[in-house]
Each structure stands twice: as structure tokens, then as C-alpha cells.
């Protein structure tokens, strides 16, 4: 018989080990799944995890993609992790990401074809503001009426998608685009194009922002009293109130930070890799970032690694689609499984497993 | 022997790192009220859990009425005629009385019949109760009745009662004792768990005393003194608090008709609570659990803001000031619930120090925490209050109840408060640690601080307080000097007049 | 628009959400918050569709959908009840897994048509003029969903098993102390919730649309969760909520078809906006009736 016994305090060893274990388990189960789909399992795993970085032919293309994909994931996940630490469940980052892109792009396009150097920073601020505003809706409803932020933030994703559709087909549509949906292409507008800062690295301003966010989040959570208050609120809400933490402020802060970072990620994406506002701009980064946040153990540096790993599965998935004809959806399932296995193995962090002889009744 | 109902032979149960019960043997006779006596952590609850089928013994056997008794689960126990009234009630607040009773029965009758039976039993035993009321709206005493009636409906041969009087006023205790006497007269055996010695001397026929999991002796309570039993229970003597000077200073904290709505569906509103406490004085506030103790602490700590003009500290209205502002001014507090309220269970002792001491001890500058200083503060508290722990990096939940209590009370005292409000400072703490905490409170008062000690332990309040008041349904009785009180007066202050009309039991 | 058709289409539109919500209600009543409804629904949608297309039997499709989603929900149960993972995170994970799994399975079925689910005219009643066609000429799943609401209501109110389920959800410590098997009760409730969500999903892919497209449940699972809050955890409230929502959906679709001057996007987002609005109204009033142990992990220490 197996019995769980609560550890007196969480095991630091297992905190670090569970993500590794989860990745291994996902590889094994994923391999079985690929075999069931009639694909060679080992080759599939290698294509996803190895080839994007080291394949003699593709690596030169896919290596820069690593940072391109990891940038928004990390930026969004850092914001989410701050809220998750406080027990505030913003799962609508996808909506905030879209709104940041739409509002940031709209502000930029209002000045078209200006070539002011101030325009891009202005758009970044507008993007952050857009995401922040979108996150303030669940925040204010929660603090004012006690409305569940999980459901509201998620509903707002669908609303944001409709706003995106309307922006792309009407009010932000490229007037010179022969009536096709989609905004002007930022790649053809040098003043605001969020290009690679160093050629062939994938490093654009969004990646820089992600790195800054990692460091900022670390300082906030480990050294600053507000970070302490956030953690305290998540660990023991009553103790937080006893300490004098204002729960309303924590909700506004956490949802605000995650919304602003997601919005910023959206702006960097639309002015860079995506290039324009279009109906399929929402790529699911906002949801994948939830996995990244957990896989990184809500720890900023963990999120950095998890973001890179998750980016790898995106690129590797595309590669596997190309080379092995693996269905695109299998990578989505792969990522979901990763989260599931992480949550399952997390039991080792807080509990000790004991095997005991069957007790005589 | 034909008169033995339950005989327990060599019961042993070990948990990792601790032997909860070590070769415990004793017998309960038919129609006997048998006391099980011991300090917190002596192994009383593990023992009764084994009798009730919640825990399986590692070794040893039980005989019920001469035949082997091995309950694998509580329903086995109930079927064999063993019923239990828990200390922390196993009741469901959102369900009504009848539903709660039905959940505790093996084969409950139809709802209508059940309601009738509940009324019958409650009349027979003098325990009035309306079957259709939601349990969340009942007082602690009434909730206990639900548990008792739930047991009685199954006509138990053995009734286990775990610390039943800790939630009752002295008058309610009398009613309970009459009920138990009637049950005994009908031939029911009762296993009565308590650490209150006088109570056991009045009520019980036999007593088994546990210390550190071992049976250290049996006695007939009426034939020994409370002191003798206490020595068997504790095993050693411990310091009793020293007396202090009677000189009192100016009024430091004052409540002026403080009224606040209930915090939740099942909370208690505060109704016109007025009190004053002076420098160097200890004000004890008694009362049965759930009569506004938690709410009063939250009002004084600043977790819930009071209406303007209700709370005055050193002559200033602090009603609208939050916990931080009150701490800055010198008003500190210690809530009852250690894990989750006074301390964050998963955070380290150092972090739990920052929780309340960040500003008074200068642990934060420009918003950044000085972890070196914070660790130093935690170490000071650990050192001064003899907290047994591997170090300040240990998570709060890894500490035993007594040690964590010493830490959270010590954390506030170490900050030299002018006024210290504390709720249940020694709840669930062993005798030696409790004595240390009480001494620390008295020392703080001797240095000129004013102390409000909210507690359900009347002995404790009588020992350390200068003046006493009692909370009842959110109202505070007028406070009076302890020297002019006796148990009868205290009972009346606690609202013992409750249900006096049913104090007589038929037959 | 023909009022008969309108009411009939509202019933069709409400049924998937009603099924998912009544299942989630039972799960939550046992004290478990399963946020994976969307994932279980979409899995039910794809499994129901795949089985119905392969076997030609919609009935088998519904059955398969219920079983598949129940099995999926048990993985959530395993994680939250035995491995004690966080319910919110695990529910989200379940949704992500379900979305991926369904997209993977469904890629072979895009563009196919589901076999037709026959209407079940209730004898006599369906002959009543107007009302008969409006209310009594639907497929069996519509009636099943309504029957389930009544059954769940009666189960919770009148049966001992229902009482135990509520007790476990109100206070698992007390229930455990009285000797009830908290984890087993919850696993059963989770599986029931999963099966219901599967049926709801299959109804979307087999009747409402009826074909398979990726992500076709489009948040219906989340709306079902909102409706449970709206209902204050009462079965009849779930019924009202689901039909209210069905009504909004049908009306906005009709407005889109009629080509009003209101932008299409505004109409498409209206169900979500109205859900938010309803949540706000409910929470402002003070949400009552949430089970006491909802979402809290249970670990029997002894």
C-alpha cells in the first residue's frame, strides 16, 4: 500500500527535479503516442527536441526562431507567475496580448507614415496600456463585486478575438490593401519595425523586454516588500490581511502587471514577427504561457528555461510536421501533457511517498 | 467479567517519529463514567480514534462485551454500539440539524420520523433543539447537542466524549452533567476525555491517565486530590507565574460602543463593545468559543476597520487605521489561529517575522527587505522564547503547535508593544510552554504595557488577569476586578443564563 | 422569425451547456472545482463525432463521448484527489490536453457530416398545435438533459447518497471523521461531471453544427462553469441559466443572419459579454450556496 505523508517543508530538490521528470515522462508518453500514429517515436522526439538546434540543414533557420517564440512566452509567463503566486488566476492573457497588439498598432497607425524615433516607444507604452486596461476589467470586477477573475478574464479572450476580427477587417484595415483584411505591414515601415537587433539571432526588443522582466520579477519577488506581500497573499490570505496587506491593491497590482506584460508582448509581436494585425494574430501564446509559468515553478529563472523549452517544442513541432507529417495538433497535446505530468509529479515536492505493508483490519 | 463493557489490552500505535500509544491497557465497566486524562499530545485522541475505528492499532486487542472488537471504520464501531462526540464537531454548517443527525447514523429513518425522534430524545434528555434549523446558525453548545443527539438516537452502549465542556458555559456544563448522569443510570458507559481535573472529580467513577502515550496509572477520582492527578498527568512540576505589583497607569486602549456587522454568513457581529485597559494591566476576556472573540481581535488589530470614534489608542481615534498604522503606533496583536492567520504555514520563521515586524524593527528600507536583519530578528525571538526549531529558515508548519505559538507570541512581545491583544495564547500548548507564555505576558505588563488576553480557558484568565469581562453573542459584559469574582458570577457574565429553563432533567 | 422555430432552436442551443453545467454542478457539490469542462466537452465532441461517423450510429456516438470524457475527467481526479495537485491548475491543464487531443483526433474528420439524430415526437403532446412542435418534437438528448436536471435535483434533495455527496462538499474533514470515503465520492462526482460534459460536447458536433471543426465548443465549457455560479449551485438555476444563455445565442445569430446594422463582431461577442454581466450581478448580490470545501484539497492525515 502506498501512503502520502506531508513533508514538514517543501523539498527544494524535488522542486527542481519535477520539471525534468515531467519532460522525460512527456517524451516517453509522447513517443508512445507517435508510435500509435505510425510515426517513428525516437525520430519524432529527436526532431522536436534536437534538430531545431543542431540539424545541419535546418538549425540555421530554426535557431533564431527559438528566441522569437520564447520572447513572448517568457514575457507573458513572468506576468502570470506574479499573479499565480498571489492566488490570482488570470487565464485571459491571450486576450490581453491581443488587445495590447490592437491598441498599440492603432496608436502607431494613427501617426502613419511618421518616422519619429519616439513613435515605437509610444506604441510599446500603448500596447502595455492596452493589455493593462483589458486586465483591469476582471481586476475591478473582482475587487468591486467579488466576481471570479478566472471566468471573466477568459470570457474577455473571446471578446478580444472579436475586436481583433473587427480591427483587421474594418477599422485598422490597410487602405492600400485592395480590400483584403489585415492592417498595414509594419515590416515595411522602418520607423516602427521591431526588427532583429543582431542579425540571425532572433533577438528583438520583445526578447530584451523578456530578459528585463525576468530580472525585475526576481528582484520584486525575492527582495521587495511588495513581492513578499504577493507571496504572503497566495500562501495565507488571512495572514496577509493580519499583516496589513491590502488585498484590493494586490489584485490590481498582479492583474495589472500581467496584463501590461502580455499587452507589451502583443505589441512586440505585431510590429515584429507577425508584422500586421490580422484575423489569425492570436496564436495561443497567452495559454501556452500558463504552462510555461508552471513548468518554471513560478520562479523567474525557471520561467526563462521553461520558455526556451516550450519554444523548442513549437519549432520542433513545425519541423516534425514538415519532415514526418506529424499532425500540428500533436504538439498542442504534447504541451498539455507536459503540464499534466508536472502537476502529477509535483506530489513529490510536498509529500513523501511511503510504502507500507497492508494493515491488518 | 460480566460487568466489563470494553477492555483494552496492550494497544500500540506508532507514527513516524512518535509512538502515540505505547502498550495501553484499561477497562471500562458497564454504566461507568470513565475518564481519560492527559495533556495535549499524551495520546488521548489516537486512543479514542482506535476505539472508534478511525485508526488501526499496530498491536494489541480490544474486547467489547467479551468478544473481539476490531472496528475497521467508524460505521463498524457505530454498529457495535460505540458512538462518539468529537471535540471539533463533525458537523456541516450549511446543512440542517436533521440532515446532520442522519449523516451520523447507519440506517436513518425517513426524514419525518427522524425529526420526531430528534424532538423526543431532546425532550427526554433536556437538550432542546429544532431539527429544521441550519447548523451554521447554532451556538457552540447547541452544536454539541446535535452531536449528542446523533449519538443517542443509536442507543449506544459506549459513548465517547472528547473534551465536551471546552465549549460550554458553567451552567451549560451542569445541564450536560445531568444528561450524562441520566445516561449512566440507564446503563450506558461513557468514556470521558478531559484535562480539567475538578470536572473529572465531580463526574467520573474511574480515571485512566496517559502521559507520552503510556498508561501511567488508574485512580478513582473522588478518592484523590486534583493535585495528585495533575502530578500523574504532567509528571513533573512547573513554574507558576509570579505575582506582580498592582500599580496601574493611564488608559492606553479604549473601545467606545464598538459595533460591527458579522464578517461572514456564520460569523458573529460585535454589539456595543466597550472596554478600557490601562498601562500595566491585564484585561482577561472570557466566553464560549464563537461569541465574537475572533471578530474582536480583528477589530482591534485593524484587519477590519471599525466605525469612526469606536477605538481609541492613547487618546487618538484609530478606528479607521489599518494594521500597519496601528503597529507603528504600538498596538500589536496575536490571533488565535496559528497556521494561516498568525503565520503563513509554508513560509520560513524569518519570513513570518517580516510579516508583522517589518516596520517596527526596521527590516525594510526603501521597500527592500534586509534579509540579514530579518534573520537576526527571527533568531532573537527563537533564542529569547526558547523556540525549539532547527533554525529561522524552517517553515512555520514544521514546528509543533507549542513551539510555533511561542514564536508568534514572542514575535510580538519582542517588538515591545504598548498594548498587546492576544487571542487564545496557550491553546493546544503543553503545560510548560503555556506557563512560559503566561509568564512572558505578565513580564510585558510589568514593564508597563497593557494586555488584552482573550481566552476560553477560565483558569488561565483567573491566573493572569487583573480584570475580567466575558463575550456573549458579540456583547461584552461590564468588566470587573478578578478579586471580586467567583465561578457563579463568571458563569452569569458568560451568558450562562442561556437555556436555564431546561436545566432540570426529567426523572 | 417564427416563434415556434425560435423556441425550438433555443432549446437546441441551450442543451450542450445545460448538460455540461448540470454535470459540473454535481462535481462542485462534492467540493471539487473542475475547470476542465471545456477540455472534456471538446473531447466529447470529437469522440462522439468520430464514433458516430464510423459506426453510423449517433447513439453510440453519444455513449462513446460520455465514456471518453468520463475517462479524461478521471485523470483530473487522479491528479487532484490522489496526487493532491492544485485543482485550478489541473483543470486548466485538462482543458489544454483536451483541446490538443481533440485537434489531433479530429484532423481526420474535418469536413465530414454526422449521421442524423432522429427527432423523437412525443406521442399526443407533439400533436398539440404550436406548443407540440415547439416543445415536444426534439431529439432524445434534449429530453435527457431536462430529465437529468430533475434527476440531479431529486438526487441531491431526497436521497441519502445525495446527502452524503453534499456533506462531503460542505466539509470534507467532518465527512471523513464520520467515516465517509471522501475521495471515492469525489471521484464518482468527477466522472459524472465528465460524462455530462462529454454528452454536451457530442451534442455540439452531432446535432447543433453538425460537423467537426477544431475548437468548435468555443468557450461553451467556460460558460457552463459560469452558469453553475449563476445558479447558486441549484439544479433548477442551471436550467434557467442555460436556457437564458441559449436564448441570447440564438437571438444574436438570428440578428446576424437578418443583417442588422450592428457589427457582426459585436453580436458574436455578446454571449460572452452577457455572461460577464450575469456573473457581476450574481457576485454583487453576494454569491450564496457555494459548497464549503469547494476547491480545497483533502488529505486524510490519519
Automatic annotation (TrEMBL), chain A:
Superkingdom classification of source: Bacteria
Subcellular locations according to the entry: Cell membrane
GO molecular function: transmembrane transporter activity
Transmembrane segments: 12-37, 66-84, 96-112, 118-141, 150-172, 202-221, 248-268, 274-296, 303-323, 329-348
Keyword Ribonucleoprotein: no
Keyword set includes Cell membrane: yes
InterPro entries on file: ABC_transp_permease
Alphabetic keyword roster: Cell membrane, Membrane, Transmembrane, Transmembrane helix
Principal subcellular localisation of the protein: membrane
Entry protein name: ABC transporter, inner membrane subunit
Organism, scientific name: Salipiger bermudensis (strain DSM 26914 / JCM 13377 / KCTC 12554 / HTCC2601) (Pelagibaca bermudensis)
From TrEMBL, chain B:
Keyword Transmembrane helix: no
Residues forming coiled coils: none
Leader sequence residues: none
Nucleotidyltransferase as UniProt keyword: no
Membrane topology qualifier: Peripheral membrane protein
GO MF term set: ATP binding; ATP hydrolysis activity
Domain ABC transporter: 6-237, 253-498
Annotated CDD domains: ABC_Carb_Monos_I, ABC_Carb_Monos_II
Keywords: ATP-binding, Cell membrane, Membrane, Nucleotide-binding, Repeat, Sugar transport, Translocase, Transport
Predominant localisation class: membrane
Any Pfam family matching the protein: ABC_tran
UniProt-recorded name of the protein: Sugar ABC transporter, ATP-binding protein
Species assigned in the record: Salipiger bermudensis (strain DSM 26914 / JCM 13377 / KCTC 12554 / HTCC2601)
UniProtKB/TrEMBL annotation, chain C:
UniProt key word NAD: no
Major localisation: membrane
One Pfam family, short name: BPD_transp_2
Alphabetical keyword list: Cell membrane, Membrane, Transmembrane, Transmembrane helix
UniProt-listed CDD domains: TM_PBP1_transp_TpRbsC_like (cd06580)
Chain ranges passing through the membrane: 6-26, 33-53, 59-79, 91-109, 140-156, 187-206, 269-287
Keyword RNA-binding: no
Localization: Cell membrane
Molecular function as annotated in GO: transmembrane transporter activity
Assigned GO CC terms: plasma membrane
Membrane topology: Multi-pass membrane protein
Superkingdom to which the source organism belongs: Bacteria
PANTHER family, A to Z: ABC TRANSPORTER PERMEASE PROTEIN, SUGAR ABC TRANSPORTER INTEGRAL MEMBRANE PROTEIN-RELATED
Protein's recorded name: Sugar ABC transporter, permease protein
Organism lineage string: Bacteria, Pseudomonadati, Pseudomonadota, Alphaproteobacteria, Rhodobacterales
